[in-house]
Amino acid sequence: MAKPKKQITAAPKDVGEALAEIEQPKMNWKVLGLIGLALAVVWIIAGILQPTIGYVGLIVAGVLTVVAAGFLAWVWRLTRKSADIAAILKGATDKESRLAALEQLRARQSPGGKDALNAVAQAQLVAQEDPAEAIRILEAIDIKKAPAVVQDDVRANLAMFYLVAGRSRDARELANEIRLDRQPQARAKAMYAAVVAEAFARTGDAEEARKLLETYDPKDKEYGQVSGMLLRAQVYTYAATRKLGRAREAMEQLLDVDPNMVAAFVQKGNRPELTRLAKQVLAEAGALPKQKMRVRTR
Q1: pLDDT score of 11
Q2: Are the beta carbons of 187 and 222 closer than 8 angstroms?
């Protein structure tokens, strides 16, 4: 029985589906609990030492409590803003709703486009139809002035767009600054890992890329659409380490996740061995149209 053909389209796999999978930001209650516990200990110690050091300890405890409260309020506002933006993106399931979501984000953007979270969301919406515009939006962000918890989101998304555009050196500069330990959400962390690993593999550090990818299983359902990015990174990594058999395995798995990501390897600018491999995988799956033979007549 012949294998069913994989459908290849000009666009990536359903962007609406990918946006619908975006994780809702959540407060890290474990960390908040530890902060609260630490403050309670400080107050207890200040109370015990009050007869000895007077009210100094209580004043210090009060100052620390005010600082902690200010920090928690800031985290709460940032989390709520992230959740609101995620909700807007989740509703962008087709071209019309993406345009509507984009208008909402533009209306909420701060003067000068300084809201990094908002800019990342806009870039994700326009990336399908205008990758260059997505890059322009993110390049306009002053990453060092963005909140620390948002900086790596900007770096990872911009690096991803650079990689798709063939700008691996630019992607590597950003990947060097990304810290996976700062991202608590599993899917976002896997996305960071995929981007960092691919940037490493395409700029001469394939062994480091391999070590990083070994800690992420693309078959983990928690990763959703990010599985495709992990498999794409594996393809580049195994090809760079001369393990074309493993690269082929990763590409075949990628074909099941998103045939269009495999088709992208056929485009100009990719390594010749990856282009040949992609053509083979697509042809065997019946997804690569066969060229018609022209017969000349005299």
Answers
A1: 39
A2: yes
Domain range holding 21? 16-92
Tell me the whole-structure pTM to 2 decimals. 0.72
pLDDT over threshold 50, residue 19: no
Looking at the domain assignment, is residue 53 inside a domain? yes
Instruction: Return the half-sphere exposure (C-beta side, CA atoms, 13 A cut-off) of residue 272.
Output: 0
3-state secondary structure of 156: helix
| Largest CA-CA distance found in the chain, in angstroms, rounded | 112
Q: What are phi and psi of 211, to 5 degrees?
A: -60, -40
Is residue 267 domain-resident? no
pLDDT of residue 150: 85
Mean pLDDT computed over 146-165:
90
- End-to-end, the C-alpha distance of the chain in Å comes to 40
**Three-state SS at 203:** coil
3-state helix, strand, coil in the chain (%, to 5): 70, 0, 30
Residue 81 or residue 225, greater confidence: 225
Residue 24 lies in a domain: yes
At residue 78, the pLDDT reads 62
8: helix, coil or strand? coil
User: Could you tell me if 135 and 165 are in contact, meaning their C-beta atoms sit under 8 angstroms apart?
Assistant: yes
224 to each of 206, 210, 219, 258, how far by Cα in Å?
A: 25, 21, 9, 12
* 38 phi, psi to nearest 5 deg: -60, -40
List the structure tokens of 150.
């948002």
Number of domains in the chain: 1
Query: Is there a contact between 279 and 266 (Cβ–Cβ < 8 Å)?
Result: yes
Q: How far is CA 275 from CA 39, 154, 279, in A?
A: 59, 30, 6
Domain annotation covers residue 65: yes
CA distance 207 to 197: 9
- Are 84 and 101 in contact, with CB atoms under 8 Å apart? no
Nearest by Cα to 142 from 173, 180, 113: 113
pLDDT at 241 over 90: yes
